[in-house]
Amino acid sequence: MYGDETVQLVRNNLVHNLSWSDVEVLEKSTFDDGLALQVIRAQPSNEVSQDDAQDRNADGFEYIVPIEMSQHLASWLTVKMMEDIFVKMLPLGTKRFIMAVVSDDGTVMFYYVYEGVHKPRRN
Q1: Which of these CATH numbers, 3.40.1350.10, 3.30.470.20, 3.30.470.10, 3.40.1440.10, describes 4-114?
Q2: Which of 23, 24, 70, 79 is the most buried (most CB within 10 A)?
Q3: For residue range 41-66, what is the model confidence (pLDDT) as tens digits?
Q4: β-strands 96-102, 62-68: how paired?
Q5: Is the distance from CB of 29 to CB of 89 less than 8 angstroms?
């Protein structure tokens, strides 16, 4: 189940593999269903997407929400849960966060989650 090990695995991946700076694990937030999540705040070492200039959060930080693959497969991630993350866990005005999905073998996959409808980027 989701725990401190998952958060630390994602934190270590950001620091040691991606060379992000100012990496800080923020306080846990508990939702109505009893689930507690944590956010990691960090500054990327370089641009993280092609649309970075227009999509960057106003404070320059990226916000990362670690979850385990079992939570994803159990259909825990709903539109309501994504909305709750924006409202309850992130600073006002945050445009996007990064969902870090940790698989059973320790692989970390990163996905952008935008608030509202977002125009697809061009390749």
Answers
A1: 3.40.1350.10
A2: 23
A3: 999 987 666 666 667 788 889 999 99
A4: parallel
A5: yes
Secondary structure tally for the chain: helices H, strands E: 4, 7
Alpha carbon 118 to its chain's center: 17
CA Rg, the chain, in Å? Answer: 14
- Strand (E) positions, 15-114? 21-25, 29-30, 36-37, 40-43, 62-68, 96-102, 108-114
Using CA atoms, how far residue 97 sits from 51, 61, 104, 105, in Å, is 14, 10, 22, 24
